[in-house]
Amino acid sequence: xxxxxxxxxxxxxxxxxxxxxxxxxxxxxxxxxxxxxxxxxxxxxxxxxxxxxxxxxxxxxxxxxxxxxxxxxxxxxxxxxxxxxxxxxxxxxxxxxxxxxxxxxxxxxxxxxxxxxxxxxxxxxxxxxxxxxxxxxxxxxxxxxx
Length: 146
What we know:
By secondary structure, this protein is α+β, with helices and mostly antiparallel strands. It has 2 domains: 2-65, no CATH class; 67-143, no CATH class. It is built from 5 helices and 6 strands, in the order ββααβααβββα. The strands form 2 sheets. A 3-stranded antiparallel β-sheet has the order 2-1-3, covered by helices on one side. Strands 4-5-6 form a 3-stranded antiparallel β-sheet.
């Protein structure tokens, strides 16, 4: 069987392309094999990294990524409803996004932004101290959708 190993970043996301592809017949101890036999050939910097391993002939996305499009659609619905409720008047198209900027007093906040430039238009959510709190708030808003 062929396997793909993807580098994991500190933010929990993974690289788009595998760092290495290797062969190994078993599925039970694939991580042990990878750590002992494959990683030893990496340079010191890459040996310290975490990796995610998938069989080459199976889907290469994590379960979080499988629902990405649906979550993005729901997130857009939430932000559109919040922007509509504020009756924002602009001559440019607006989009929604999570930002950390001077206009939000260096807090995380879901905002209406000018499309193309991402210039701040209006706040759509409370301000949050960290990205995780903002994501949790959005998850709750999505859960409340009717």
